[in-house]
Amino acid sequence: MEVKKYQLPYGNGFQEVTLPEEKVLYDIHGNKADVQEDIAAATLAAVRCPIASQPLQKVVRKGDKVAVIVSDVTRLVRTAEFLPVIISEINVAGVPDEDITIIVATGTHRAHTHDEDIAVCGKDIVKRIKIHQHDSRNNEELTDLGVTSFGTPILIDSYVAEADKVIITGAVSLHPMAGFGGGRKAVMPGVSGHATIMHNHAIALAPKVGDGCNPLCETGILEGNPLHEDMVEVTKKLDPAFLVNMVFTPEGKLHEVVAGHWYKAWEKGCKDLVAMAGVPIKELADVVFASAGGSPKDMNLYQSCKAHMNAVFAVKKGGIMILTLECPDIKEPAIFTDWFSKSDVLQFEKDVRADFSIPAFVAFKTRCIVNSLTTYLVTKPENFEFVRQTGQIPVASLEEAWLLAQQELAKQGKDDYKITIMGHASATMPVLEA
């Protein structure tokens, strides 16, 4: 039997494992795609030749109060490289700096420090343009725009709701509840009230207690996804004037910039992302090796669990998942990791329903995935105790994890097993063909 050595990203390095080549079904890296080296140039071309919209220079005009929504520091999408282009185009249209406000879409996160504003927006923009930190819990800074058909109260940051023109920015990405990130997420949850965000995200749980996660709210699903549809209703009420979104390859390089109508341009970005990150497979594997993609994607479990949520699409029910996640800050943030103290899954679900938050739901969904498989987690030895608390089996090396997996396969009497490898599982999605 011929063997082959495989490397999976782990922190700033790699973990290696030697596998029988005939057992490997797929080595998934995402599909080949063109790369744009100059983000500023790509952004300028996109905003001057937009999708289903006039160019940005014609969308805004002198006298407008313009709000530009940007992702916060937890979503580093290279805003500092494309934001100056947007501001310049608004200026050329006749809108001076003093009539522009940058809104940091914190969602439920904390406000930026001054240094974080510079990291996200760039030093020159911070000097020139007023920056407002959205606060979802400050009701005095929220405007009530009604209620969605799902019963979600539409509470929007007043700086945004009262602007003449709203420009939304961000990046299209795979999302484990909303199908895709980017687009309408700049508004909901980006600049929405806490009650709006919590009511919307609670849709990610199944309607009936005990049924766990809502199967319609899943990665890559838009049609029939009630959480996404509710987000769209919230954003439609605001009706942003223009969108600029980055589309990155699974390796984190810029593929394209989509700009124009807030939904149609973003929708094109979603389709193009799936063309890169969505990898068709004909068969599920008994064992899946997966990496989040190395640092910074495996800094902590909260970021890393995106690998769990995509890799699960490649493995058979009750199969084996082996993850390489260095996680030097594995317990950050505590509002996520503290939930793993709950080992009773039904009680876990009830507690999430009673005190819903995004970190709580992500922890619950991760626990459900882990409980449905045998999951080995290759990580730092100091993480072992906490890893056991999450229901995963900690190991120090990929070779050791593979040895344990082979023992488990032998126990199950499986000698005809198949393997799939996902080196960038956080950003690639296996799609099982019918």
Automatic annotation (TrEMBL):
Superkingdom of this protein's organism: Bacteria
Family matches, as Pfam families: Lar_N, LarA_C
Domain Lactate racemase C-terminal as annotated: residue spans: 284-422
GO molecular function: lactate racemase activity
NCBIfam families: Ni_dep_LarA
InterPro entries listed in its UniProt record: LarA-like (IPR048068), LarA-like_C (IPR043166), LarA-like_N (IPR018657), LarA_C (IPR048520), Ni_dep_LarA (IPR047926)
Protein's organism: Phascolarctobacterium faecium
Protein name (record): Nickel-dependent lactate racemase
Chain segments annotated as coiled-coil in the UniProt record: none
The gene coding this protein: larA
Domain called LarA-like N-terminal: residue spans: 10-206
